[in-house]
Amino acid sequence: MDYSAIISTKRSRFQLLEELMGQPGFFDDPKKAGDLTREHRQLDNLLKNWDLYQKQVTELADSREMSTCGDPELEAMAVAEIPIVERRVTELEKLVQLAVLPPDPLEGRDALLEVRAGTGGDEASLFAADLVRMYSRFAENRGWKVETLESSPSDVGGFKEIVMKVSGEEVFRRLRYESGVHRVQRVPSTEAQGRIHTSAATVAVLPEAEEVDFELKPDEVRIEVCRSSGAGGQGVNTTDSAVQVMHIPTGTIVRCQDGRSQIKNKEKALTILRSRLLERKQQEEAAKYSAHRRDLIGSGGREEKIRTYNFPQNRVTDHRIDLTLYSLESFIEGKIDDMLDKLLATDLEERLAEAGLR
Description:
Layout: H1 4-21, H2 30-66, H3 72-100, E1 111-117, H4 122-141, E2 145-153, E3 159-167, H5 171-175, E4 180-186, E5 197-207, E6 221-226, E7 242-247, E8 252-256, H6 262-286, H7 291-297, E9 305-310, E10 315-318, E11 323-325, H8 328-331, H9 337-354
Parallel strand pairs: 4-9
Antiparallel strand pairs: 1-3, 1-5, 2-3, 4-5, 6-7, 7-8, 9-10, 10-11
């Protein structure tokens, strides 16, 4: 495929961004400046890869010509070089293809990560806590920030439910495939007979919604305040700091009580509400995907069983891509890059095919 016209358009856009970024007052609007800076960085990578791709294509043509030049020594050198250059051309072409795909406007956003204990009682809540630690350590390794918006601890030290905001570079792009049911098979610490139990936790990854995504009209939102529930202690159950927000048209309810500030709890509740409403919209749009792609990477629904963590066998299996890793110990400690890379690559390959680039 000839990418010259696309690259020419991208190069013009890159030059325009360079001019805009050099103007006084560019950073007066931090949100706009951040978006344009991110676009500039992406275009810069694309153009560098395109230039390298063009250089390697020329080098490949030269090597092929040299392989039939009549000089045995030069021909041998060229024949040995051709597979290496062909591999570089293929790799660079793939990077260019991915960069010219229509962008997903949500990929660069921060994310809300919800983890809920499922079937399995106390063991499910402990597994939910393990997942929270896994994602937190993964985020820490990538330099992301994690903030707890709401949590409901269990009596055994796990979580019945927790909602966290994860902020950083391409957070939603990396975590979006984690939505679904995560199943664990292991011997609980409370199991005297050493029997393996199966329990589950549900993960939902939502792109952080902006106010422009959903206009929460005052007459469609009911906000109530009440005293926080909990085990008691200083500052707990003494002020009306808990906030419950209900979106009347959909019946969606969000309650926040972690913070002592009613204002902060209200802001957190509205943040979660917007993101859940955006999730509903995403699920509706997901129905438009091809059946093959839904089978390949899943629908992203909360109800879909996506992964099994088998501790006796030190095994973690992702059922969507049929990938098994025998490194559960390190995986549960946050080293999940290999799995996420494979999920991302699988989805991108399908996007390329749908765009006619494969």
